[in-house]
Amino acid sequence: MHYDTKHNQHGMQHDPFKAVVVPRPIGWISSVSPEGVLNLAPYSFFNAVSDKPPMVVFSSGGRKDSLRNIEASGEFTCSIATDALRAAMNMSSAAVGPEVDEFKLAGLTPAASQFVKAPRVAESPVALECKLWKTITLPPPEGKSEALWTVVFGEVVAVYIDDRYLRDGRIDVAAMRPIARLGYMDYAVVGTENMFALNRPTVSADGTSASVDNRAWDGVYR
């Protein structure tokens, strides 16, 4: 199959685009409204985009509460959704009114951040405290006059990591069991059963060939 995305002539029940760009980490975004109401929502169009400075990005389809709150306050947090928190993450995606606190709706505990007003999810093992850098409105689809999506860039100003998941100076990702979004209503879990390591190739002195050392990683980035 090969189809034109402008006309979506794929002949399938659902657009397969989101099922081929996988897995996607889930940005569990927390914000505070101008009225002081806490908001929490998961976004699967989310990722880290740089480490110097540390930056994350997510995109909002429509002007949702998260987007409005972040534009007003200039800050947000992103907690990591894990296998143990899958039901709460799913519940926090409910399209309830802006007056509803999704922490309470999902039975979660807000924990105070250090550098931003928006709280993190206390039950989550990792959280990023972010300051808004900028938002970018994406172009509208062909034939439409209004844009549907807005991209939010945030600079990470602080990182919270539960000490229980630190092992020998590294984060034990497998122990956290983070979840990721696949297509449709499908998700995946990262664990020891599906993790593997690969050393980067070492390039020869003359730059014409490369080889890979298959021994365990020595802790040096090359």
Q: What can you tell me about this protein's structure?
A:
Helices cover 12% and strands 35% of the residues. With 222 residues, it is mainly beta. The strands form five sheets. A seven-stranded antiparallel β-sheet has the order 3-2-6-9-10-5-4, covered by helices on one side. A hairpin with a 2-residue loop joins strand 4 (46-51) and strand 5. The longest helix is centred in the N-terminal third of the chain and has 9 residues, at 65-73. The mean pLDDT is 94.
Q: How many DSSP E strands?
A: 16
| Strand order across the largest sheet | 3-2-6-9-10-5-4
**End-to-end distance:** 39 Å
Portion in helices? 10-25%
- Quaternary state reads single chain
Shape: globular
Structural class: mainly beta
Q: Strand portion, in percent?
A: 25-35%
Number of helices: 5
Order of helices and strands: HEEEEEHEHHEEEEEEHEEEE
Enumerate the spans where pLDDT stays under 50 for 5 or more consecutive residues.
none
Main beta sheet, described?
7 strands, antiparallel
Radius of gyration from CA coordinates: 20 Å
Mean pLDDT: 94
